[in-house]
Design brief:
Blueprint: E1 21-25, E2 32-39, E3 41-44, H1 53-62, E4 64-68, E5 72-77, H2 83-90, E6 94-97, E7 103-110, E8 117-118, E9 124-126, H3 131-171, H4 178-196, H5 207-210, H6 215-224, H7 227-281
Parallel strand pairs: 7-9
Antiparallel strand pairs: 1-4, 2-5, 2-7, 3-6, 4-5, 8-9
């Protein structure tokens, strides 16, 4: 394996804007490693990571870490014991920290010149420990973590719709108030905005354009973590949520129309009463 000084060079910055990812620390010695991915928040400000001395020291103690702009950190290590301290330092650079961390962990076995594959038990075999190959593994796990986060968001929105669906099924009408309808619409839109504004997990990494030799490895990893299938399921669910949003807006509009009709009827009734009163008084 190459010496540690040749590893973990910072990822290339792509101006303008933040680097897509930054590498911190160095790959620890050994053929068998743990790769630990976790979702820290909405964004990681990757611009300031290299200048954070404390962060760099903690990263060096933990292993090799790739910090992704879309809020995920992935560490190659021999033990996860040092990761909590590293994450605490990383959180200083995180926007909108996650209330619940989605985590993905795998075992990586590096055999120089060996056949690259993913075993039935999920062990990832790599032919070398060069950074592009490690970055590809980190990217796939980062996308898997983001998909898990997105799946949880969508599940929460679907769960919030259950009472309304049951109400429509049993009573034939929705007893939600207009503000409640609009809050549910806001929840759907917020979930979609959060998902669409982060990593596009179903897309091929840009890394493959510069390293086409890694295409076969990516195909194996993508199949192992079902990135394409999960992304398609999410899109279908968002399509269903779009229909649900239209139903909510229709319900709110109908309720407003009913209120308007009641107001008009009330005005007519008042005018009739006034007319009758005048007629009687006259």
């Amino acid at each position: 394996m190459p010496d540690s000084g040749s590893r973990a060079q910072p990822a290339t910055t792509k101006p303008p804007g933040w680097p897509d990812e930054v590498a911190l620390g160095a790959l620890p010695p050994g053929e068998t490693l743990i790769v630990h991915a976790r979702h820290l928040g909405t964004r990681i400000d990757t611009r300031g990571l290299a200048a954070d001395t404390v962060l760099r020291e903690l990263a060096a103690a933990a292993g090799l870490t790739f910090a992704f702009r879309y809020g995920v950190a992935v560490t190659f290590c021999t033990t996860v014991n040092r990761i909590p301290a590293l994450d605490k330092a990383l959180l200083a650079h995180v926007r909108e920290p996650a209330e619940h961390q989605e985590i993905e962990t795998a075992t990586v076995l590096i055999t120089d010149g060996g056949k690259e594959r993913v075993d039935d038990d999920g062990v990832i075999h790599l032919a070398d420990d060069e950074e592009p190959r490690l970055l590809l593994v980190a990217t796939v796990l980062a996308h898997s973590v983001m998909l898990s986060r997105d799946e949880m968001l969508v599940s929460d929105v679907f769960n919030s719709s259950v009472p309304l669906v049951a109400d429509l099924q049993v009573n034939g009408k929705a007893r939600l108030s207009i503000p409640e309808c609009m809050r549910m619409v806001g929840g759907v839109l917020a979930a979609r905005h959060r998902v669409m504004g982060t990593a596009q997990a179903g897309e091929r990494p840009d890394l493959l354009w510069d390293h086409p030799d890694l295409d076969r490895l990516y195909t194996r990893l993508e199949a192992e973590y079902e990135l394409g299938e999960r992304a398609e399921v999410l899109e279908r669910k968002f399509g269903a949520l779009g229909d649900f949003t239209e139903v909510l807006l229709d319900i709110a509009q109908d309720k407003r129309a009913v209120r308007l009709e009641v107001a008009i009827i009330a005005l007519i009734a008042v005018e009739l009463l006034l007319s009758i009163s005048k007629a009687i008084g006259g």
